[in-house]
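Pipeline run #58 for the internal structure catalog. This entry was flagged by the ingest filter as a single-chain record with no existing model, so it goes straight to prediction. Upstream metadata was stripped on purpose; only the residue string is passed forward. Reviewer on rotation: M.T. Logging verbosity set to normal.
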Amino acid sequence: MLIDASLTGALASTKADAQALEAEGYDGLWVSETQHDPFLQLLQIAEATERVTLGPAIAIGFARSPMTLAYTTYDLANYSAGRFVLGLGSQVKPHIEKRFSMTWSRPAARMRELVVALRAIWSAWHDGARLDFRGDFYTHTLMTPFFAPPRHAFGAPPVYLAGVGTQMTEVAGEVADGFFFHPFTTQRYLREVTLPALERGRATSGLGLDGFTIAGPAFVCVGRDEAEMAAAVKGTKNQIAFYASTPAYRGVLDLHGWGDLQPELNRISKEGRWAEMGDVVTDDVLDALAVVGDPATAGRALRERWGDVATRISLYTPYPSDSSIWPEVVDAIRA
């Protein structure tokens, strides 16, 4: 199991942070699309590093057209000497329609077509194929030499899709090279729901899971003393509550019999009582979604929980912490 890190700091420190994390031995570096454009950060990471895999986890697919994604990511594959991975996710309907002013409809089918369209565009550039893609959501039939990027040695990047529900997960298995599980998942949900959906998707393409990457961020609630642990628990419960308030993630709660938590947290969020949401999350919910303990305990628990399923994993820590604690956790995972 490869161990990755996420960069969440200021843009000005991206290069220095990336160099430091590569020197610490992490295998991959990911950035998310929240407050910044992830591709601008990834260009800096590509320039600052030599070895690590890098990519967005995730970039929002439905905020862009296949063509704009194709240009940016084909170039990043070249800039990074083939280390770039395109991680895509759908986001949820209100953000696509109200934040990005883009179209939302049949997200799983649209994501499948977006990836197939990307591959058609990349093939036109890299293999010289005629661009003639006609789908239900996207049409790409024009590519003249003036607008075609030069072919480069590294080719199109791998595509990983993120998902929680079974439909999107099946699409990932069918058309992608890898899958990002959401931090809001449990060991039981991954094994009973996610893996079977990926296998169904792979079977659609006549493939199995061999060579298919399963990656994702795992909640880690860690501290060396009572004060550090209390801060970790509070921050993690708050983030779990934020995700649990979203209807799209209710399936994870339903599997464990906690489905009523979702509308309760959704109501609290709509009332603007964000600071209270974490108090609703019980220790049972915390333990199912996160590993909890001192660095050695948390590291061992991560390996036991995900080691036979995940190809690569990153540590999701939604709270301030002493940076010196994380090498201890990583050493315990690798022990």
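catalog note: Residues 2-220+293-334 form a domain with the TIM Barrel fold (CATH 3.20.20.30).
catalog note: Residues 107-126 form the longest helix (20 residues).
status: ready for reviewer M.T.
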